[in-house]
Design goal:
Four copies of one chain form a homotetramer. Chain A is an alpha+beta fold and 359 residues long. Chain A starts with a strand and ends with a helix. Chain A has one domain: Chorismate synthase, AroC fold, CATH 3.60.150. In chain A, the strands form six sheets. In chain A, strands 1-2-3-7-4 form a five-stranded antiparallel β-sheet, with helices on one face. In chain A, strands 9-8-10-16-11 form a five-stranded antiparallel β-sheet. A two-stranded antiparallel sheet of chain A has the order 5-6. Chain A is 26% helix and 22% strand. The model of chain A has no long low-confidence stretch (mean pLDDT 94). In chain A, a hairpin with a 2-residue loop joins β12 and β13. Chains in contact: A-B, A-C, A-D, B-C, B-D, C-D. Chains A and B meet through β1, α2, α6, β11 and α7 of A and β1, α2, α6, β11 and α7 of B. β11 of chain A pairs antiparallel with β11 of chain B, so a sheet runs across the interface.
Chain lengths: 359, 359, 359, 359
C-alpha cells in the first residue's frame, strides 16, 4: 500500500523522479467552473526555483506546466486535472559515482531497503524535485481558497541560530515583500546572510524554520478525532523533504507555559466572537475557530555537503566521497512556497469536506 | 466527511463521548491467529487512569473492556474486533453551568460552530476520555508488534521548564521504572514535583513533553511521498488532545545545526549497516532505517483551571466562571500510554502495509 | 487490508459474528441535528426478522438496538454513531458437528483458507445475522434521505421460476402492502407460495430476485469514472449474502435490445427535463438523471438443505451430513429490507459526496 | 468527493477526456523489481482499437504510451507509475452541433447537471476513449498476475439475441483464437455477423454480453464483508461505459434453481480440495475458493445511431438530430480487453491486499 495521494475530498496524487521524464500529478475533486490562471501557477513554481535565491544551487529549472485534462479552456470541468512538468538538463553520468554508496542522511539506504532498487540519479523519488508539482497543485488550491477570501503565506523565521523575535504578527504584505531570504525582518536577514556566507565558506550547510499563517478560514474546518485540522497540516508539512518538526500556535513553547497564561479567552466585538490571544494557533479541538491559523516547520540542514564525508557502500565497505557540483547551502527560503502549497491543499480539502456534513 | 478512523491496513475507528454510554472502537485488519491477553490491555488502560497519578483528577475510572466480535476465545479470527468501555459515574448535573458558555482553549466554541450542537457534559467528544479506547487499541497493536520484537516506550522528558538533559538514550527499562511522573530521572522528577506543587497552589496548570522511542522496527517502513512514517506518526500524535507540537529525531534543534554535525554517517559492523549517530530519529526519506525511532510531543497546559476565568457565552455576553471540582494539574504523565498507543497503531499499520508491495 | 467499511462521506463500519456477543457498527459522517426515531429503526429491523415470514427459520430474533454514541437524546451530534444489537439464544453445541466439515456453497472453506481459522457457529462472520446491523444503519440513511424526499423501496419480483410481468412501475405503496412474500402481485404470490410448499416438501430451497426503486434522487449523484452511482450500488448489494447478480434499468435484457428501442429520449414538460422511457434505470454515465433509479438483485437458493449432502472435511475426507434444525426455505422476502438498506446507505453517501464539489 | 481512483493496495487513478490533450493515469502501489514489457501493453491497447473490428468506427487510434515515472529502464521501482496516451486527430468542429443538446442515453445531461459544464467533444470524460488507459493499467496488472500464474480472459458470449450455449468451459486458448467478434464459437459468430449486418442496414446498434474467466487465483482473495471479491469485480466492471448488468457464477439463473442443484459439493483429489461443480463462480462468501472465477457483463446497445432521433436541448426545446460520421454498431467485441483489464486490476489489488493480514 503505497502513499502517493493526499487529501480526501480534494485528492492530490503525485508522481515523478528527479531525473525521470517528468514530475506532475492528478488533482481529483477540484470543483468545476473555476477559472485557472496558468500564469499564477507558473509564478508560484518560480518562487521555488533555485535561480531566484542566493545560497541555492545554480541550476535553473525553467519549468513549464502542461495540463492534460480537467480543463475546458481555462475553466475547470469537475473532472480530474492531470498535469506534468518536464525534467530538463538531465546528465545521468553525473551521478554514477553515487550509485553504490549510501549518502549520509539521504534516503539512498532506506529506498534500497524498502524497494530493493533505487533511482540514484539526483535522489530519484526522494528528491525535492517532485515538489515542483506540489507547488503547482498548491497554487490550484490557493485559487480555490482565494474565492473564499482564505489566504496562505509563509516566511522564513529562522536560519541557523538567527530568528525573528515575533513571528505571529507578520502580515501577508510583509511576508511577500522582496527579501533575498524570504524573511520579513531586514536586520535578521542580514545576520542570516552573514551566517550563510560563513557556512558556505566552511563547505557546510544550514537549516531553519518556516512560519506559515492562514487567514480567513471560517470556523468549523477540521474533522476530529483523527483528521483534526492541525494533524492533517502536520502530516502534509512533514511530507516535505528535510522537515523534522511541526508545531501549531504556541507549539513546544506551550510545554513550559502555565494554563492561566496559555488560555485564549473568548471575547465578543459587535456580536462577533473571537479570542483575545491566539496561543491555540487558530485551531481548538482540531477545528478552526476563525482566528489566523499559525504553524511552524523545522528544516534540517542540507545533507549534501561541499566537504568530503565518510559512509559505506551497498556491501558495507567504508567509502569517502567528495561533494561535487553546485548545491544548496540552505533550502529554507525556497521551501516557503512548498510549505504554503501543502497548507493550501489541506485547508482546501477540509473546506470541501466541511460541506458534506451540512444539512 | 468525518475523520474518526486512522490507519489504512490496520484501521482503528473510534467512537464515544465523555458522558455517553460508552467509548470504544472497531479495529479492522488485525491479523488472525494472534492470542490477545486481555490483562495486558487492562494494564495499559490502567496506566492512563487518573487514580494512579499525583496532580491528576481524583476520579477513578475502574475501566473494563468488553469485546464484541473478532475473537474466538482469546484468538483473533481476522474479522473486525469491536470493543467498548462503559462510562461510569456520570453526573450530568455537574455540567449544567457550562452548557451556554465557551471555556477558554476548550473545544466548546469550535464544536458548536461546526456541528450546531455539542455534548457539553465533560467535553463530549473532545474529551480525553475517548483515549481510553485508543489505549486499548494501541495495546492490541503492541501485541502484534511484540511478535516482531518491536517495542514502544514513552516517558516524560519535560514538565513546565524542567527537562531531561538527554532523552535519546533512555531505555525501555528506565522508562518503565516506577516514577510518579513517568520521568526516568529522579532529580528532575523532584524538581517537577516541586513545580507542580507550586502550580497547584496557584490554582494553575502545567504542560510538558513526552519522548517516545520505538526499537526493533525493520528498515523499510513508511510510504513516501505522503504517508511517510514520521508524517503518519505526527498526524496520530497530534490527534491526542492538548498536543501542540511534534518533532522526529533532532526536530526543531536541527534548524540551528550545520549539515556536517547533523548528518548521520553510515557504518557497518559485521556486515550490518547502521548509522553512527541518529539525528534522523530512525527515519530517512520517510522510511525507517532500522535505528531506534525517536519523536517528541509537546503538550500545552491543562485548560481547566481552579481559578476564575473570563470568557463569553453563546450570545457573546461576557461571563466569569469559577473552576469547579477536581481536575488535572498536569496530564502529561498519564498521557504517556496514549502517545505509545498512537505510535504503536501507526507502526503496526505500516508493518502490515509494507507487506503489500513485496514480491 | 480488511474491508468492513462502506461509503466515503457516510461511512458504515460493520462488526459481528452470528454467535458472538453482538453485531453492530459505527456510522461516521452522519450530519448533525437530525432526529432519530428509534422505533422506525426497530421496525425496519423487524422486517428482516424470520418470525414474520413463512418458509423462514422459526428462530425469533427479538432484536433491540443500543446506541453508544453520537446522539444527544435522539438528536445526532455529528460525531460517530456506534450501536450494537446483542445476539441471543446462542446454543454453541448445536454446531459442533459442523466444525470440521465444509458445507457446500457456504463460506466455511474460504474463511478457513483465508484466515486459518473460522467461527463455525452459525456461519460466524459470513452469516446473514450481521445484516441486522446493516438494516439498522440503512434505516438511519433512510431518515436522512427522507428529509430530501428520497424514498427507497424493494419488493420480490421473482421466486424460483415465478416472476412479475412488469416490475418497473411498482409504487412504494404497492410494495409495502402486506404480502407474505413481499411480492406486490397477488396471483404471482400464490404461485410462489405453492412452489415454496413443494420445495419445502422436497427438503429443498429456492432463490429469487428483488427489485429496488429509489425515487426523488436529484440529478447529479454519482462520481465517475470509478464511483459511478450504479457501480457503488452493485458493490453494496453484492455484499449481501447469497446475491449473485445485479442489474440496473434494462440490465441483461439490454444485451438483446437495439439502440433505437433502448435509447431514452429526453422530453420537457413545463421546462422540466425528463426521459420518455427509463431503460437507463435513472442513471446515465454513472450519474443520476432525476428519474426513478431501478435495479435488481438475484439471490441464489439457500445453501442449507433439509436433505443429506456429500462434502469433505478439513482433511479432504468424504463426509455425508444431514440437515438439522429449522432453516429458511427461501430468504428473498426477508432480504428486501437488507437490499433497501444497502441502497439507502449508498444514495445517502453520494448525496453527501455531491456537496463537496459544489461552489 | 470525486471518484477517479480504484483499488486500495494497487490504486489506479484515471484522467483524460476524449478530445483533451491526453488520457492516462497513475498506478500507485505496483511492486518493485518487475520487468514491464511495453510491447505487451501496446498489444493489449491494440485489442481495443476500433481499427481491428468490423462494425466499429473506422477511426484508427494509433496509440502510443509514454511512461513518465516509476520505471528504471523497464524495471519497476515501487514508486508511482504515471503514463499518458496522447489523443490524436481531434476535429473539434465536428461536435459543434451537439454542444447544446442532450443526446438520448448519453451522459450529456447528467454531466451538465452535476458539474454545470461539460466537454461536449466526443463525450468528454464520459467517452470510452478513457478506457485506453484502463487497458494499459490492466496490462500492467496482468504482468503482475502472470508471475503468480493467474490468467484473465474474456470473450463475447452474446450479441443481440445470439448467444453461446455454454460459456463456462471456454479455455484461454479458445478465447484468444482469432475471431472477428471475439466469440469462440464459429457458427454463433456467423449468426452474430449476419445480425450486425442487418442492424447496420437499419441504422441501428446492438448490445451483448462478455464472459470473463480468471484461472489460477489462489483461495483466500477477497475482503468480507464489504470488499468481497465479486462485489469489487462488479464495481469495476460496471464502471465500464455501457455495462448495465453483472453476474458471478450462476448469476441471475440462480434465482430459479433449487439449492440441491445449485450447491457445489466439495471433493478432494489427492488431498487437494475443490468443488465438483462451480455455480459459485469461484467465489464463496466473497472469497476466492481456488476454482476458476467466472463473471458476465451485459452491455447495452450503442447510444449513437445512424438514424435521426428526437430529444431536447439545454432549454428544453425539442430537437431532432441526425447521426453523423462513422460510429460503432456494436462495441462488445472491442470491450473484451477492457473487461479483462478491470478484472485484472481488481484481482491484483486483492492479491496484494491479502498479504497484509498474513502473519
Amino acid at each position: 500500500m503505497a502513499g502517493n495521494s493526499i487529501g480526501k475530498a480534494l485528492v492530490f496524487t503525485s508522481f515523478g523522479e528527479s531525473h525521470g521524464p517528468a514530475t506532475g500529478g492528478i488533482i481529483d475533486g477540484f470543483p468545476s467552473l473555476i477559472t485557472i490562471d496558468k500564469n499564477f501557477i507558473l509564478a508560484e513554481m518560480t518562487r521555488r526555483n533555485p535561480a531566484g535565491y542566493p545560497f541555492s544551487t545554480g541550476r535553473t529549472e525553467a519549468d513549464d506546466i502542461e495540463f492534460l485534462s480537467g480543463l475546458s479552456g481555462d475553466i475547470t470541468t469537475g473532472t480530474p486535472i492531470a498535469f506534468l512538468i518536464r525534467n530538463h538538463a538531465q546528465q545521468p553520468g553525473d551521478y554514477d559515482h553515487l550509485k553504490d554508496l549510501y549518502r549520509p542522511s539521504h534516503a539512498d539506504f532506506t529506498y534500497e531497503q524498502k524497494y530493493g532498487i533505487r533511482d540514484y540519479r539526483g535522489g530519484g523519488r526522494s528528491s525535492a524535485r517532485a515538489t515542483a508539482a506540489w507547488v503547482a497543485a498548491g497554487a490550484m488550491a490557493k485559487i480555490l481558497l482565494a474565492r473564499h477570501d482564505i489566504r496562505v503565506w509563509g516566511f522564513v523565521s529562522q536560519i541557523g541560530p538567527f530568528r525573528l523575535n515575533d513571528d505571529t504578527t507578520v502580515t501577508m504584505e510583509e511576508a511577500t515583500t522582496t527579501s533575498p531570504l524570504s524573511c520579513p525582518d531586514q536586520s535578521v536577514t542580514e545576520e542570516m546572510l552573514k551566517f550563510l556566507e560563513q557556512t558556505r565558506a566552511a563547505g557546510d550547510t544550514a537549516g531553519g524554520v518556516i512560519t506559515c499563517i492562514i487567514s480567513g478560514a471560517p470556523a468549523g474546518l477540521g474533522e476530529p478525532v483523527f483528521d483534526k485540522l492541525h494533524a492533517d497540516l502536520a502530516k502534509a508539512v512533514l511530507s516535505i523533504p528535510s522537515v523534522k518538526g511541526f508545531e501549531v500556535g504556541s507549539g513546544f513553547a506551550a510545554a513550559s507555559m502555565t494554563g492561566s497564561r496559555h488560555n485564549d479567552p473568548f471575547i465578543a466585538t459587535d456580536g462577533l466572537i473571537s479570542t483575545a490571544t491566539n496561543h491555540s494557533g487558530g485551531i481548538q479541538g482540531g477545528i478552526s475557530n476563525g482566528m489566523d491559523i499559525l504553524f511552524r516547520a523545522a528544516f534540517k540542514p542540507v545533507s549534501t555537503l561541499a566537504m568530503s564525508q565518510h559512509t559505506v557502500d551497498r556491501n558495507g565497505r567504508p567509502v569517502t566521497f567528495e561533494g561535487k557540483g553546485r548545491h544548496d547551502i540552505c533550502v529554507v527560503p525556497r521551501a516557503v512556497p512548498i510549505v504554503e502549497a501543502m497548507a493550501a491543499l489541506i485547508v482546501a480539502d477540509h473546506l470541501l469536506r466541511s460541506r458534506c456534513g451540512k444539512e
